[in-house]
Design brief:
The structure is a single chain. The protein has helices at about 10-20, 75-85, 90-95, 110-120, and strands at about 35-40, 45-50, 55-60, 70. It has a four-stranded antiparallel β-sheet with strand order 1-2-3-4. By secondary structure, the protein is an alpha+beta fold. The protein has four helices and four strands; from the N terminus they run αββββααα.
């Protein structure tokens, strides 16, 4: 389902999809589907969700690549940092460039983020 980046009218459909994907949590294969509120589809089988326990924004993937990667402490911090890198990134691995194991959330001041901002002509944006 590709419902556009911020189509609030699709939240009900995303919730139904999330319920259909809860089976992926069985036997500890993956986690997060049952406890997340999906709010965005990438159209590539991956979603942004809000973990209902921690409030963190996480990356959810049906293929398991980068599944559960933490993108933001909360929705506001995720949006703040992601906007400051021009909403760059589409695949899970892209988001790793803006974070690390020591700092798991998107950081618009990371070396890769500064490089992307330079490419996009945004080097002074959000400094």
């Amino acid at each position: 389902m590709d419902c556009g980046l911020w189509d609030l009218d699709q939240l009900t459909a995303l919730e139904q999809l999330r319920e259909d994907l809860e089976y992926l949590d069985e036997n500890g294969c993956r986690t997060h589907w049952a406890d997340s509120l999906l709010f965005c589809s990438h159209g590539n089988g991956s979603y942004f969700g809000i973990d209902q326990t921690s409030g963190e924004v996480i990356y959810l993937s049906m293929d398991g690549i980068m599944h559960g990667w933490r993108l933001g402490y909360d929705f506001a911090s995720f949006m703040h940092h992601w906007i400051h890198v021009g909403c760059a990134g589409h695949w899970g691995q892209d988001f790793m460039l803006f974070s690390s194991a020591n700092a798991p959330y998107i950081d618009h001041t990371s070396d890769h983020a500064l490089l992307v901002k330079q490419w996009l002509g945004m080097q002074h944006f959000g400094s």
